[in-house]
Design a protein that fits this description.
- By secondary structure, this protein is an all-alpha fold.
- It has one domain (16-190): Tetracycline Repressor, domain 2.
- It has helices at 16-30, 37-44, 48-55, 58-82, 87-100, 111-118, 125-146, 154-174, 180-190, and strands at 102-103, 106-107.
- Strands 1-2 form a two-stranded antiparallel ribbon.
- A hairpin with a 2-residue loop joins β1 and β2.
- The protein is elongated.
- The termini are far apart.
- The model is unreliable at 1-9 (pLDDT under 50).
Length: 194
């Protein structure tokens, strides 16, 4: 007589959203390249088998972390999306970003910018594509706000959006080094000719 073995799927002993939030914080602090699966195990509080079973690999965990980061930063991107203040709405986004990127008295910068700075574009094309998509979403919000300005022209708006994205990326890096006064100066000067 044959016995049928019934294998029951193991019930996860963890909440995926919670462990991804922990992984996001780790990637944000250490960067993608420097974060190991062992570090993820410790930070997330789950074993390597669970990481591979739920997320595939470190790349899978990071891609989920980018999605979690988008949700976290939505507190300020949604404000920009709803803004009817043109360039002033974008300027407020810059200030809001600085507040968002703080952890206590330390500025962490932007998870996306930090990752782009550490990676070569060929090291992981899937991750780079996700990071570029994220940046493109922010750029589109800049365009929408710039188009609210009286007399705005499409070509000029595109160039200004490019400029402001570069300013934001620079601000993200600078926020890890400079004090608030210098960062405020950077924002104010960035918007002088917009």
């Amino acid at each position: 007589m044959y016995r049928r073995l019934v294998t029951m799927a193991r019930k996860k002993q963890y909440n995926e959203q919670e462990v991804i939030e922990k992984a996001t914080a780790l990637f944000w602090r250490n960067g993608y390249e420097a974060t190991t699966v062992r570090m993820l195990e410790k930070e997330m509080g789950i074993n390597q088998f669970s990481i591979y079973s739920s997320f595939g690999n470190k790349q899978g965990v990071f891609l989920e972390s980018i999605s979690a980061y988008k949700k976290q930063i939505s507190c300020i991107t949604n404000k920009l999306k709803a803004s009817k203040n043109g360039k002033e709405g974008i300027k407020q986004y810059f200030y809001d970003f600085l507040e968002f990127a703080k952890e206590g008295s330390k500025n962490k910068g932007c998870l996306v910018t930090n990752t782009v700075n550490e990676m070569k574009d060929v090291s992981d094309p899937i991750i780079m594509e996700k990071l570029v998509d994220f940046a493109s979403t922010i750029r589109q919000l800049f365009i929408a706000n710039l188009l609210q300005e009286e007399g705005s022209k499409e070509g000029e708006v595109q160039r200004k959006a490019n400029y402001l994205m570069n300013c934001l990326l620079g601000l993200s890096v600078s926020s890890k080094v400079y004090d608030q006064r210098k960062l405020n100066d950077t924002i104010e000067i960035s918007f002088l000719n917009i």
